[in-house]
Amino acid sequence: MPYPPDLVKPMKEDLTRLGIRELLTEEDVDAALLPKSGTALLVINSVCGCAAGNARPGITMALENPVLPDRRFTVFAGQELAATERARRYLSGYPPSSPSIALFRDGQLVMMMERKDIEGCSAHEVAGKLRAAFDAHCVAQPR
Hints:
By secondary structure, this protein is an alpha/beta fold. The chain has one domain: Glutaredoxin. The chain is 44% helix and 19% strand. The N and C termini lie far apart (40 Å).
């Protein structure tokens, strides 16, 4: 059963206000993640306390990095159930985890932060891990 929309709206807006595009359907997920060129960030957002305390603020800080993924997307676990399930198919080898953060390059998963990788970290540590992944796998884009 999905969470009530009013409950998750502010949590979604924490990411969408940063220009991270929300994927609401299975078709949205495939259209976003099937392209095999460039880089894509995928955030599986959630109501989990570590999402609010560490993941979303860490993502906000990481997006201040000069090198960023070409495309940025999010699905909300417990809200868009089919879209979240489809997104998780792109994360083969990893069990369902929310929140989680994935980085793809040319269609290949190159970095994955599961909930267990986020829970014990501060927002600054999450941001640092993401910045390092952006620097290693993304190409600087003019702003």
